[in-house]
Design brief:
This protein has helices at about 5-15, 20-25, 30-45, 60-80, 100-110, 125-135, 150-160, 230-240, 255, 285-305; strands at about 50, 55, 90-95, 120-125, 140-145, 165-170, 175-180, 200, 225-230, 245, 260-265, 275-280. The protein has about 300 residues and is α/β, with parallel strands linked by helices. The mean pLDDT is about 85.
Length: about 300
């Protein structure tokens, strides 16, 4: 097994296609297919299912990629540090569920450092990927939430991956929508009020449990639902279709604009979201990590006061 084969497998998993992966890797598709088959033969497992729609990971493949990503990211760091004779750039990465305040705090943090000397990355991604990024050291910090519904499952997953959760804020559930939505003027909104409008949720992948949902009350029976992959699309659907999503109510107008409102959600169930950050158990925050946490805490505290 070689580093090159590991990289091939990672890129194929990311693209979901042998052809797209080959284009990205600048090799021929037959060469890529052959390399993966040799790897599977050596390991004694099948990493990918092949079909007319593309490729997907098998159960063995998912386990292999979990370790392979960690090895490859560490290899990249090692190569960067000891090859080329260039001055090493320090890295800092954050992986987060789709929270504009997490991006805002990241922006304020980056302003304090010389980008010529640092390599920064922020990734808004699926919950499962946020956890995986922190576990494999791709990101130092991850931002997720816990609730009474998902707490036991997510906590168990974090523990098994040797990760720790630190609470940042606890907040009630709000309905997030366009300011000209027919319900935007209400003081509070019930599930019955929302039955005629599409509920917008972030896509978590076909193999992910509903415990990974970014929206609280993910199992609520809303008649109409639409999935999106990014925050910009979500906001466009709010305007174009009068869609809504359930969220923390913490809105960063500087990034999302002032065309959206958050209205308290009425529910008989516990709707408290506990937002926090995750890190590896064996890791302490870097200088940049400490500042990022301070910035996100300051922003959240400011929102509470407002």
């Amino acid at each position: 097994m070689t580093i090159q084969q590991i990289r091939y497998a990672i890129v194929i998993a990311q693209t979901g296609s042998m052809n797209k992966a080959a284009e990205k890797l600048y090799i021929t598709q037959p060469s890529l297919t052959g390399a993966v088959r040799e790897l599977e033969k050596e390991l004694g497992i099948t990493i990918f299912y092949r079909s007319g729609r593309g490729v997907s990971l098998t159960n063995d493949g998912q386990e292999f990629l979990m370790y392979a990503r960690q090895v490859y990211y560490q290899y990249e760091s090692l190569e960067e540090r000891y090859s080329g004779g260039h001055e090493l750039k320090k890295k800092f990465g954050v992986s987060t569920q789709h929270y504009s305040f997490a991006v805002k705090a990241f922006v304020e943090t980056v302003k304090n450092f010389d980008s010529k000397k640092y390599e920064f990355a922020i990734r808004e991604d699926k919950t499962k990927e946020v956890i995986e990024d922190v576990r494999t050291l791709r990101s130092e910090i991850g931002i997720i939430y816990l609730s009474n519904f998902n707490r036991s499952v997510i906590t168990k997953i974090l523990k098994s991956n040797e990760l720790k959760f630190k609470k940042l804020i606890a907040c009630n559930t709000y309905v997030y929508m366009w300011k000209d939505h027919p319900l935007a003027h209400k003081k509070s909104i019930s599930a019955d009020d929302l039955k005629d409008y599409p509920c917008l949720t972030f896509e978590q992948g076909v193999d992910s449990s509903f415990y990974f949902a970014e929206e609280i009350f993910s199992t609520a029976d809303f008649p109409r639902t639409i999935k999106a992959n990014d925050r910009a699309t979500m906001l466009n659907l709010m305007i174009g279709l009068n869609g809504f999503t359930l969220c923390s109510g913490i809105i960063c107008e500087e990034l999302n604009g002032g065309d959206y409102v958050a209205v308290p959600f009425e529910s008989e169930e516990d709707g408290v979201m506990e937002i926090g950050y995750i890190m590896r158990n064996d890791q302490i925050p870097s200088e940049i990590g400490k500042l990022y946490i301070e910035n996100i805490e300051a922003y959240l505290n400011k929102c509470i006061q407002l």
